[in-house]
């Protein structure tokens, strides 16, 4: 997800930390931006710099659904499970993602390409049902159109991976 | 010169506005003398996105459902040829004399826009647009140079504006509390957490007119004597955050944010704080905890935020839409505002129409407009000629209002009388295919997982209710379940610490009140009248739609589907385990639940 923290990288933010209160969540957000998740060592760094006990940091991480303690796939698929999407058939959409990607909500596919999550509303309710793949939103989905979209991402993801190794 | 404007809100972008913009940019670069290209936020007609507007000497023309191909056609014919493309895609037009036409005239013309005054009109990333076209920062100038804090608060009080975050607390009164508390450090907080799933008006305002929110906050700062503000925006709205940051930078450059604004000696600075995905953080005391970097747990009141809020300092928190109203009220006067709407709920309210409504989008109407007017006259009725069953208002804290009460006016008195609440303005329309027990279960599932766990009644009570609703939808309900749900509802409401628990039972109570028959059908007859609860319905293939591709049969894990290539397939109900794989695999929407 695009965040305002992008402009300043994690190390810079830690270095800049001046003891101002309320910086823990932005620091965690920038760690997640930097590593793709919040790794153990980031918690240790943050604790060392801010003097907030690691256990407290862990408490904050687990309270908010944005933070992940495991690496995420290349494509993070977020299916909307909000009210408008619910009445417009979100369940079939969620089932279709699980089926097509072979992962359950919360998991990452074996090839590391996809992580599947649900969110409570993307704010595109009038285009329900909706999914978000990384920063791109796709609306007015049917199981068939969704399969097509996911296949396209898989193709792109695989191609990039091959390209990285075997490009001339 | 002609002007082309592309709607680039999140809704436009997800419907494909970016490639349309790129195409138009490519064409405009080839013909720099013909036109200028610009962007705008969401105008509210999300159901026809992507939208492209053309302004020329005949007036304004809005094209809907624009694709790359039709963008090129519009460019060639309208921009270069000077003739409007004559097809259904012209959804709204305004002639020079102000008269309007087009297929979606009813959607826009029945509205009265104050909060959305600039949305879809100005380029949200241009402060000049906000000032020149939107008349922006005039209210701020007036408040800082010609009014005392008391006068500002008095104006807000007499406007009658009530908080748009859900509870409808009078804004002027709230400001007077924060102003009365002495202290050299105070805060203004804008609640942009928009947690209600199914609501998106705050997103559209932030994306379409971010300066209006900033201006409202600065005016509030002057009124209560605060010099710092926070906007707490949910992380799921990256575009809103980006536009807010840009707006703050632009306002700083113009001297509207920072020191000695308009030479009045008043200083105000602002910061955007990003949420991290917790519904309860929309509750103001939990929101403060989150800004402070803690787990977002609500605090006991009193002390109220006006006395001890963020960092234990006097704080005033308002919703995005509340703040967006403020500059208009200051600039146009309290009376102009209070003359709109009803006596006890003055002004307008933005509603997010979604669900089974034909025209989903944003509609701003005077308070007191009826549900029927919103859903039918503006929203165009129910999708696919469905039957109007209910409208859900207020999200997880709200309730379902049945179709036979569609003449209920929307205001802070009439809606609560139905058992629902005004809430933030999400209006999810349901048709005959929505199971009301399923909806109650859906919301309980939401509140149960979003309960922060601090108080027992909310944490465990909602789980018990969810378990009961779960078994009812599975066809395992027992007759005493309804009574148990009602009892639990009362207990949770009375004993919970914050608004989350205090309102969580609302969706259950309203559905029991209006749809008791549906509960009974699930419990006694083991039937789901709406045909939604999987355990209680049959999966069937519609013969007319089946092309015999065999996909469903190949995907069925228990070999319950029979049929040969190019022949109509049939599901063996004895074998079917109701997993739904056939529905998700069918490319022709031929499998349905009944
Ligand atoms: C569980 C819960 C969630 C809430 N979520 C929001 C929200 O997303 N946005 C909002 O503006 N107010 C929300 N509120 C209401 C706020 O606590 C607060 O009353 C409101 O922001 C005050 O603004 P107003 O006076 O302008 O209405 C929520 C309240 C509760 C109890
Ligand atoms: S409910 Fe799905 S985008 Fe809002």
Oligomer kind = heterodimer
Intertermini distance of chain A: 32 Å
CATH A-level architecture of the largest domain in chain A: 3-Layer(aba) Sandwich
Can you summarize the main beta sheet of chain B? 6 strands, mixed
Compute the gyration radius of chain A: what is it? Answer: 18 Å
Report the total helices of chain A.
7
Could you tell me how far the N terminus lies from the C terminus of chain B, measured between alpha carbons in angstroms?
Answer: 57 Å
Query: Share of helix among residues of chain A?
Result: 40-55%
Main sheet characteristics of chain A: 4 strands, mixed
% residues in beta strands of chain A:
5-15%
Name the structural class of chain A.
alpha+beta
Global mean pLDDT of chain B: 94
Structural class of chain B: alpha/beta
How confident overall, as mean pLDDT of chain A? 88
What is the CATH fold-level name of the largest domain in chain A? Glutaredoxin
- Spans of chain A with pLDDT under 50 lasting ≥5 residues? 1-6
- Strand segment count of chain B: 20
Structure write-up:
The complex is a heterodimer of chains A (168) and B (594). Chain A is an alpha+beta fold and 168 residues long. In chain A, helix 2 runs antiparallel to helix 3. The longest helix of chain A has 24 residues. Chain A starts with 9 loop residues before the first helix and ends with a helix. The N terminus of chain A is likely disordered. With 594 residues, chain B is of the alpha/beta class. Chain B folds into 5 domains: 108 residues, 3-Layer(aba) Sandwich (Glutaredoxin), CATH 3.40.30.10; 212 residues, 3-Layer(aba) Sandwich (Rossmann fold), CATH 3.40.50.11540; 84 residues, Ubiquitin-like (UB roll), CATH 3.10.20; 90 residues, de novo design (two linked rop proteins) (Up-down Bundle); 56 residues, 2-Layer Sandwich (Alpha-Beta Plaits), CATH 3.30.70.20. Chain B has 24 helices and 20 strands. A 6-stranded mixed beta sheet of chain B has the order 2-1-3-4-5-6. Chain B has a 5-stranded mixed beta sheet with strand order 9-10-8-7-11. At the A-B interface, helix 2, helix 4, helix 5, helix 6 and strand 4 of A face helix 1, helix 11, strand 10, strand 12 and strand 16 of B. The structure holds flavin mononucleotide (FMN) and FE2/S2 (inorganic) cluster.
